[in-house]
Design brief:
By secondary structure, the chain is α/β, with parallel strands linked by helices. The two termini are 46 Å apart.
Length: 543
């Protein structure tokens, strides 16, 4: 069995490949025979002429990226345990305990005032082009579905039309648009639009502006994410914009105000500047002070997002969130990303999701057992489908309330947008044309949405929003089916013993029972019972 978990030196993410693709040295990723005269298709070769550019996934602004690393343990190493007995949250009656009756709503916050129709949150889509270009679909689709969406870091600072006076933002175009798109399509008070801030955002007063001028109730402090342990990054192809960002206090490489750099850029020696955010310096005193400032500024709910840092940092996040009354704590495992995370860092840095979420449960339970405040928890790290959502909720039950997803919702919105473009051009691909040539025929949720919203409102919907909404509809039905199979008819009934570890190693890491040890005591009791009485007792209804 191979013990190599990483793929090195060639990847679609860096647009590189090996010359001898069938014969590669596992540890280095190099061709078994590296030949003098090769033009350098691999990552080493490409780095020989493009240098630091090859650190990042490409082409920037058109892709999302996630690690290729195969972790020793992941969520596929757990299976969902169903049962033939009883029901929780509904009468144990076959005519009533049907999967459409499963309630997927969740409420959280210090007053349980934030309510979602589905336990899904998009945790931080920021200033990258991939986010900006798909925001219509993401915002409207999330709002219609009654789920959460976080506006990520640097949106104000990256907006050339932002008005900044004395170092503070007083007006915006992009942030205002992003908030409005969500709010205009919110239904019945479900869902939430959250504005996130990093160091640069905090210096610009983004949270205070969002609260006072845009009516945002939910704000988020950001310590990091699972994709990288440095600040946010983007590439900039325009010299004037690079200079604007430099003036606004960002780290821009190379220096766009240097005359030699300007001349090199103008003659085509390089085509992109890099804009970097600073790394945070967390202290308990600074954290407490900022939370208090936000509440005084009018924030109704304050959340914290942290990444795949070492366990002591996770412990800090859990403790500070408890001590200072944070409403939602999002913990993002290693390996994923939606922007421009350094490729090797994305693959080789941080605590993987299963290990991180297992530690999270352990830490949170310690506080709960002592009667300390436990905020609602969201976990993220490569979730895409309903089975993974169920496993994530079960792994952290009863503390985990939401599953954070970013790349998958973006993919759904992008596909929806692309389908819309082909409809407009009368060029619907054959693969899709078998379902029809209009959005009413292609999107399976169209009929219900048209009925709910009315013809005029439905016609205004961008197909990117239909793509996300329809993807969420699939996740909702799939999750209801899994929960009904477990006889759990509301999210609050999901428990850790609803999943089982498939290997002793997965069991050791997570504390979830190994599949061969599940129900041992109960099974022994059933088998040792005499006559019908034991059978009746084993089929006792629950609910």
């Amino acid at each position: 069995m191979s013990t190599t978990f990483s793929r090195v030196n060639s990847s679609a993410a860096t647009l590189t490949k090996n010359r001898t693709e069938g014969s590669v040295t596992p540890a280095s990723g190099m061709c078994v025979t590296c030949v003098d005269g090769c033009i350098g298709m691999c990552e080493i070769g490409k780095s020989a002429y493009r240098g630091h550019e090859v650190i990042y996934p490409q082409p920037f602004g058109m892709i999302t990226t996630a690690a290729e690393k195969t972790y020793p343990v992941d969520y596929s190493h757990f299976n969902i345990m169903g049962t033939a007995v009883g029901a929780h949250g509904i009468e144990a009656d076959s005519d009533k305990a049907v999967f459409p009756a499963v309630n997927l709503e969740v409420a959280f916050g210090h007053d349980n005032g934030v309510k979602f129709k589905l336990p899904i949150m998009i945790p931080g889509i920021g200033s990258t082009n991939i986010a900006k270009n798909n925001w219509e679909g993401l915002a409207i689709g999330s709002a219609l579905a009654g789920t959460g969406l976080t506006i990520g870091e640097n949106v104000v600072g990256m907006d050339p039309e932002s008005v900044i006076k004395d170092g503070k933002v007083v007006d915006t175009v992009d942030l205002k648009r992003r908030v409005k798109l969500y709010k205009d399509h919110q239904r019945d008070g479900y869902g939430a639009i959250v504005v996130q801030a990093n160091i640069e955002d905090t210096r610009l007063g983004v949270h205070e502006y969002a609260i006072s001028e845009l009516g945002v109730q939910c704000v988020e402090l950001k310590w990091g994410q699972g994709a990288k342990d440095i600040g946010g990054e983007v590439k900039v192809r325009d010299l004037k914009k690079a200079q604007l960002l430099y003036e606004r206090g960002y780290v821009v490489i190379p220096d766009p105000t240097d005359e030699n750099v300007i001349k090199a850029f103008e003659r085509g020696a390089f085509k992109e500047f890099e804009r970097h955010s600073r790394v945070g310096m967390v202290t308990e005193e600074g954290f407490a002070q900022r939370v208090e400032e936000l509440r005084k500024a009018g924030a109704k709910y304050v959340s914290l997002k942290t990444g795949a840092y070492r366990p002591a940092d996770l412990a800090r996040a859990v403790k500070y969130a408890s001590k200072y009354g944070i409403d939602l704590l999002t913990v993002d495992g290693a390996g994923g990303g939606t922007g421009m995370s350094p490729w090797r860092m994305m693959n080789e840095w941080g605590v993987p999701p299963v290990e991180l979420h297992s530690l999270l449960y352990e830490y949170v339970k310690q506080l709960a057992d002592r009667g300390e405040h436990v905020p609602a928890i969201a976990v993220a790290g490569g979730f895409t489908f309903e089975d993974q959502i169920f496993k994530g909720l079960a792994m952290g039950a009863p503390f985990v309330k939401l599953i954070g997803m970013a790349r998958a919702p973006i993919a759904a919105a992008m596909v929806g947008k692309t389908i819309g473009r082909t409809i407009e051009q009368n060029m619907v691909p054959v693969y899709i044309e078998r379902f029809g040539n209009t959005k009413d025929e292609i999107f399976v949720t169209a009929a219900d949405l048209r009925h709910e919203l009315g013809d005029d409102e439905f016609e205004k919907l961008p197909t990117g929003a239909l793509g996300l909404y329809t993807y969420y509809e699939r996740l909702a039905q799939g999750l209801r089916q899994l929960m009904a199979g477990n006889r759990k008819f509301a999210l609050k009934y999901i428990t850790r013993d609803d999943i089982a570890a498939l290997t002793p190693e997965a069991a050791r890491i997570s504390g979830i029972a190994y599949v061969m040890d599940v129900d041992k005591a109960e099974s022994k009791k059933i088998l040792s019972a005499n006559g019908k009485a034991g059978g009746k007792k084993s089929r006792k209804k629950t609910g």
